Amino acid sequence: MASSLLLTLSLLISLIVYSLSSPLSSETILDASEILADTGYLSMSLTLELISDTLFPNSHSLTIFAPSDPAFIATGQPSLPLLQFHFSPIPVSLETLKSLPYGTEIPTMFQGHSLTVTSSPSDDRVSLNNVDITPLPIFDDGFLIIYGIREFFDPDFEVRAPESSFGCGFLRTNSFGNASEALRSGGYSLMAGFLDLQVLEIKKSTMMTVFAPTDQVLGNRLGNFGEYSSIFLRHVVPCRLLWTDLVKFNDGAALPTHLGGFSINITRSGGILMLNGVPVYYPNMYISDWLVVHGLRQVLSVPWEGTQEGIAGATDESGGSIEDYTPDYEF
């Protein structure tokens, strides 16, 4: 499964921001160790004090997933790579963890190994590598965040891709709430607003796929209020299409949308899947049993707004070269 590209970008931005701050102080590590010990994570408390100077002496931020004392007893003395697998160089807040879609990868200090989100935004829990984390952080000062887990993560864990249930039909009930929250948390607030306000424009019971442009590019297109409905409806397909479904379409396939007379044409350029000349930037941003959302970096234009001629030499509506934003997947 492709990594969640938006998370990767946000993590890179976070690395830049937090690299400008001071390294984690010994006082912060000591405070965290004391709280770990007081909350029943004595083994991790002692481990943190012992390895902090050598494992992350100059870290500016950190997320730690602390195994319980029984886990340490069952496993014995963990190896250094196994410990590194439980440390991420990014402070990942609980709000962020809850918003991440299934299959999102979170980098760790164990080189070449990432943790994988195995829950979805609609769940009432957060799990990584099929291990639930504590409902609230044990410690959180904005730079160092610690969660508890009942067992050690398995570095050899492999995520199972969500099963495709490609369909164009109707369900009895559904809700846009969780999808809207996922969109807002990822920088797609305007599309979330459309989803909330334009519900009556679409039959509430239909399966659908939403192709969501970012706030930055969509904001540049919102001038005439009368065009809002057109902009929204042209990005909605009355079928549930996972990324694995999209890549199975042949070049030239046309996806009908809720905007009458407007279709989304599938092509490929240099191995990249294109929708009316626009690459999918964030596949499977949100998945439910009736709705899938994919992120875009451009608005899908209607013919009279300009032609779509692929990515060669083109620019996206935020001013950058499309090649700068080409997602890292091929088929």
Automatic annotation (TrEMBL):
Keywords: Signal. Residues 311-331 are annotated as: Disordered. Pfam families: Fasciclin. It comes from Quercus lobata (Valley oak). PANTHER family: FASCICLIN-LIKE ARABINOGALACTAN PROTEIN 20 (PTHR33985:SF17), OS02G0491300 PROTEIN-RELATED (PTHR33985). PROSITE patterns: FAS1. Residues 1-21 form the signal peptide. This is FAS1 domain-containing protein. Residues 29-157, 163-300 form the FAS1 domain. Belongs to the fasciclin-like AGP family.
